[in-house]
Batch of 2 targets.
Target 1
Amino acid sequence: MHLAVFAQGVGVSQSVWRSPRTQPESMHSLAHWTRLVRLAEDGCFDAFFIADQLNLAPTIAKDATDRPDPIVVLAALAAVTSKIGLIGTSSTTYNDPYTVARQFATLDQMSDGRAGWNVVTTAIATAAANYGSDGLPDHEARYERGEEFVDVVRALWDAWATDAIVGDRATGVWADLDKIKAIDYAGEHFQVKGPMTLPRSPQGQLPLAQAGSSPTGMKLGARVADMVFTTQHHLAAATEFAESMRALAVAAGRAPDAVKVLPGITPIVGKTESEARELAREIGSFISEESTLGFLKQSFGGLDLSGYDLDEPFPDLRGALPAHASVSRPELFIKMALDEGLTVRQLAQRVGMSIGHRPLVGTPDTIADEMQRWFEAGAADGFIVLPADLPVGLEEFVDMVVPRLQDRGLLRKAYSGSTLREHLAE
Ligand SMILES: Cc1cc2nc3c(=O)[nH]c(=O)nc-3n(C[C@H](O)[C@H](O)[C@H](O)COP(=O)(O)O)c2cc1C
């Protein structure tokens, strides 16, 4: 089973900074991030993952969700870890492939081969204004650029042959120019000469993650990703998604297990069921309506929900979304509301603790049982764990659930490889 942790501030549950279990005053410190990454490494996670959005959260008045630059944080964390993979998010809409290729190759050098890139196209419209544009490109246009962006980055990572450095003191030859190639890329969106400013990094081609579950997102993932992060709530739908990803990988000429499918879970662990439920209630008590509605609005591409009666059944908004909006996330939320007959208020409350991911509230054994059930059914190759609160939520998962998974032979007890790609191949 492959595990990654989604580390964000003091946890993903809205306004959890108010909980005495968190220390929001220190969440910007290197000490905080060091504690988190070491916990995940102690738990033998494949990777520590930092998500990113290029806008200040609209709910900042209530939520402590600022967004440090992932690559900078991960570079610092490379120095305090030795095994765990370090995956950062970079947008293909508001970046340049040469910059991204360099940043991640450098992170791979600094971490001895532990870097990975989460390829996102950015679905939040307010990010556009931070990059000199008054609107987000449409969904399909973003993915078109994203496809090309990844090709350029991968070509740059291949520009230096593994043996391009000669380093011969006697002759004074440092590098073999025949083994350092320009890429001369000329496409629809990018013209990039190359080569890279630095030699091939330890992994060369870094593992890629992809996290959009729309048909276009899945197609990109099937072609290029080593991991796909997804939001899934039901075993049948998750299995169908994983099977589609495997089939798409094969159609793209890859092995069916080339792409590891990792659905998100938010574990709330208690020594007893009632302790877990009480903890979930306590964490949920900090969630404000203002934040949940703000989060929903952002998830629906900025669609204003204020005109809807909060206690009426959730409206079927499928035809009403703006063209730039994310596809899979709103679909999932609308389906959840319609299937379960939720009101706007109830849906908002439902997604507030786990940014819409699947909460697993229970004892170490029941949580391990659920993870095992999905894993064995082929719905998941592992999970991306989004702790509701940090660091304690991660600590409890590592102390209580991880040993159960290890005892069942589902999770490594020690790292056998040293690079992220080796962890994923285990
Ligand atoms: C676990 C997980 C992590 C994600 N992390 C990010 C992120 O850091 N930045 C981002 O813009 N989108 C992130 N996303 C969302 C998707 O990448 C994507 O933006 C969105 O779902 C739109 O894709 P789609 O229309 O193909 O579904 C994440 C999704 C999941 C499931």
Target 2
Amino acid sequence: MVSVAGLAGIAAVLALLGRYVVPTLWRMYTSPLRLLPGPSSPSALWGFVKVLHAAEASVPQEQWVEQYGPTISFKLMFGIRRLWTVDTRALNHIIHHTAIYQKPMAARYHLSRVLGPGVLIAEDQQHKNQRHVLNPAFGPSQLKEITEIFTEKANQLRDLWMAEISKAGGGPTRVNGLSWMSRATLDIIGLAGQHIPLRRALDDPLTLPGAGFNYHFEGLNPSGQTNELSEALGVLFNQGGRAQLFGFLQGMLPPLRLIRTEHTRREAAALAVMQRIGRQLIAEKKAALLADAREKGRGVRRRDVADRDLLTLLIKANMATDIPESERLSDEEVLAQVPTFLVAGHETTSVATTWCLYQLTQSPDVQAKLREELLQVPTDSPSMDELNALPYLDMVVKETLRHHTPVPASGRVAMKDDVIPVNTPFTDKKGRTRDHIEIKKGDLLFIPIQSINRSKELWGEDAHEFKPDRWEHAMEKTSQVPGVWANQLTFLGGPHACIGYRFSVVETKALLFALVRAFEFELAVKTEEIKKKGDIVQRPVRVEDQKPDLPLLIKPYRAF
Ligand code: HEM
């Protein structure tokens, strides 16, 4: 006799098979992706997961593209195939058809659990509404005002590094470039940001507001101590190996999400901190807007509130009585933007600036030429226009973001059957020449950001070299790249393109401006002791212990 518990167990296994295993097998044997050229899988269970994990991002895929052509597929976990195409026509189609190509279930599960329904994961009409509200906070005129914050924080970092050098006796001093850059960009995106009190705050740089909300991370403090919100962010976004694998499986197999582990408990506590602080910031801003409206004898109206900082725009879109109900953001959507912007806007820019410093240690001539240009500027607090008028700085930033792409790829799933046109026809496994890629609902694919950024086909034979001078001349073929900035895919393109790309570029310029004028940089270890690692954002890590670090030797530049 089978017990009730036994029957329940059998039912659970059958449900799991019916819901997840059978559809996965069905997709494996029916997806048109199986007919695309590509390498044979080394493992039935893992596919190429381990190979890709051990390699630098996109390197194996670039070799496969050389061998099999621009449109390929390869297997990952459980034998499920992914499409990988570097065909710019195909990518243009994918990036612009956001009703069809959306973030995969596993990515959405993880992001939505931590971020809530923010702009990074919203789709369709909800995404359009949110972008409509948020876009003005990232336009050139708003950015002009907050550039002051970037330069002030950059100068604060410069002064702290000077103090480190003095403490060490004045000679070349070792610093972890990655960690300092992370603290500076966290402060900047920090939850502060109404530009009205900025002037007042400039008198006291430690209370300087950041660019996003209304919160002081004070990451740039000499003790290096972190506060509760930055600790919560660390728990939520810097998971270790085992937690990462389990998290991946939870993303793929929803029943596993019911299992509680030590890590999920720590995560829940961190989430609670994030939400408590987010709610408090929103409540304070709401109260201020309401008090102002009451003084004027009416409710909060969009046309009465002129400020365009992120928090004000969000609250206005939540409360204003002259915005139609259907376009208003819910409380939940407003709250979700707090972690969304902290996450999307912090580590990405810190890593970009860190790679730039790394590259300057590898290209001393570029470092010297850049410093020479920066020292021509007669102020240490340049405006956005002054920063953007520096041609070599612009070329160095463009080349860094191309060559050291912070986010190397992004995943998508097809929400329905589709046909993707290609520039370059390919021959499928049945020997047929195809001028399109067939897609079935549920098929998974990657947008190969880094591979496009360093494709020899588009950028020339020297695509893998760091050469800022390439930006002196127009590059004809790169105009095919469907990216929102500088003909590269770094910030993606289409409706989901990075909202903060201008913000990030000016922020990176401001940090480089302050640091390269003041210091000379060398790598404190041998080049081969540092490598690139990271699943979503690529950081420099030490080869010996895989710890994120950019060990720099800094010394004051004599002319400063
Ligand atoms: C070098 C720095 C940065 C890089 C490389 C970068 C890259 C990207 C990429 C590739 C995406 C598209 C992700 C996808 O759909 O798969 C994205 C989206 C996004 N980024 Fe950035 N980003 C950077 C800086 C920033 C900054 C500074 C902010 C905010 C202040 C920001 C906010 C966002 C947001 C909110 C989205 C979601 C946009 C949407 O889906 O509508 N990013 N970013």
